[in-house]
Amino acid sequence: MDPCPFVRIVIGDLGIKFPASSKTTAFYSKFKLKNFATQFSTVPLILRENHPFDNQIHACFNFSKSELEKFVEKSKKNSCLKIDVYAGSRGSGCGFSSGKLLGTVSVPIDVKGVDNRGSVIQNGWFVIKGQSSKSELHLNVRAEMDPRFVFQFDGEPECSPQVFQVNGNVKQAVFTCKFGFRNGGERNLRSRSSNSEACTSTSCLSSFRSRKEKSMKERKGWSVTIHDLSGSPVATASMVTPFVPSPGTDRVSRSNPGAWLILRPGHGTWKPWGKLEAWRASGDQLGYRFELLPDATAGLNDAVTLADSTISTKSGGKFNIDITTGCSPMTSASSSWDLGSGSGSGSDYERSGSGSFEQLLYRGFVMSSTVEGGGRCSRPEVEVGVPHVTCTEDAAAFVALAAAMDLSVDACRLFSSELRKELRQQGPDCVV
User: Fold this and answer.
1) Cβ atoms within 10 A of the Cβ of 206, count?
2) If 0-12 CB within 10 Å is exposed, 13-18 middle and 19+ buried, where does residue 64 land?
3) Percent of the chain with pLDDT over 70
């Protein structure tokens, strides 16, 4: 099946001309487009003519085909990108310091003529309206085609659903998702063994209570395995660090997060590909961090952080990996997969190990997955940039990551609340 069409509105080549008499040297801007979250960026000061721009992407807005069609229809009413320009320094953390508003630049956005090659919407200098003295902002606004494969779970990950590839109203099954508990057989064996031993009713009751109290204080052993249509496992997400409350609280803290390993098959075993950590942040926020794990055999031992943010546990949101201002390592680029037939091979990935991190890079949009909040039924929808899907295992790894992210919402629920039955293992050593 063909990928779904997406378009990115990209803003780059920022620069500001400001009166030489001013002592201000730091500037930043807010980018506002209707129905999109506000984005921020610093703006370089241009001191002379022919000054080279930094060739960075400063903001980016993503449209699916249906969203683009609606935007084009509304463009008849002169939809504009509004850029507020401030004098001041960027603040610490995720925000900006309170700077002085210099003025606003409005850029008409017309994407009617966008084709597969993309197009430049605006390029050049714009007068910053609102300034008594003449100040100008330079920017390049262009539209780029950004096709993505879209996958959708047919149910909640803990219910072991099918996963479909979708394109508009067309969908086809490509994976099955199997949720379970690691080492369940060992727990059952220990249970049978302990039941066969002679013990007093008092000691057995005491032992059961002790195990139950411990299980109430940790959530562990969850796993999700992704299978292709032939039944072969092609990726798995395994909870390797239990989700436990901080002392004196019923919350998983950032100082002691729970963690998942995302694994891919290779050389007859499972090879770590990524690590997802999650915790309960302030208020009703779920904090998360995803790191790409290099292969130590390639001489690269440092993990690379691709995502570090929060999602509301009430309203939900999107888990997002988007490298718009740089690049980061990726997996094998020599494998192949026909998404139309669902066939492919990860043999090149196995032969090359993790590949060369210097040669194989993630760039631009990588993936996103929906996360529901407020206890609503969650059927994650996963978008993956076409350049990052080169074999079955590539797509499956992102699907497994999306499942782990979705389940982390439940794993980080307050320990004073009970989990749904699918997430509670039955028996004396159950995990809640």
Assistant:
1) 12
2) middle
3) 75
Mean predicted lDDT score pLDDT of the chain: 79
Element (H, E) at 323: strand 317-329
Q: Give the phi and the psi of residue 387 in degrees, each rounded to 5.
A: -60, -15
Which DSSP state fits 122? Answer: E
- Contact between 332 and 345 under an 8 Å Cβ cutoff? The reply is no
Name residue 106's beta-bridge partners. 82
Cβ 269 vs Cβ 353: under 8 Å: no
Q: How far apart are CA 240 and CA 258, in angstroms?
A: 8
Q: Rg of the chain's alpha carbons, rounded to an integer?
A: 25
Q: What is the pLDDT of residue 300?
A: 57
Q: Which two tokens stand for residue 425?
A: 């293992």
Say how far apart CA 123 and CA 34 lie, in whole Å. Answer: 21
Q: How far is residue 164 from each of residues 305, 318, 343, 391, 399, measured CA to CA in Å? A: 28, 19, 15, 16, 11
* Residue indicated by tokens 């801007």: 29
What length is written for the chain? Answer: 432
Which residue type, as a one-letter code, is found at position 167?
A: N
Cα–Cα dist 385/337, whole Å: 14
Q: Which residue bears the tokens 């002379």?
A: 48
- Stretch (H or E) spanning 64: strand 57-64
CA distance 419 to 426: 13
User: What pLDDT, on a 0 to 100 scale, did the predictor assign at position 397?
Assistant: 97
Query: Does residue 260 or residue 48 have the better pLDDT?
Result: 260
User: What SS3 class is residue 411?
Assistant: helix
> In the beta sheet, which residues pair with residue 98?
none
Among candidate residues 76, 9, 84, the one with its CA nearest the CA of residue 43: 84
- pLDDT tens figures, 127-172: 998 866 678 999 999 998 899 999 999 999 999 999 999 998 899 9
Strand partners, 87: 27, 100
Both structure tokens of 208: 């059961």
At 52, the amino acid letter reads P
Going by the DSSP 8-state scheme, the letter that residue 170 receives in this structure is E
Question: What whole-number distance in Å separates Cα of residue 70 and Cα of residue 63?
Answer: 10
Question: What pLDDT digit, counting tens, does each position of 278-302 carry?
Answer: 999 988 899 999 999 876 545 556 7
pLDDT value of residue 21? 65
**Nearest alpha carbon to residue 149 among 406, 330, 392:** 392
Tally the C-alpha atoms within 13 A of residue 411's C-alpha that lie toward its C-beta: 32
d(CA 43, CA 51): 14
CA distance 359 to 348: 15
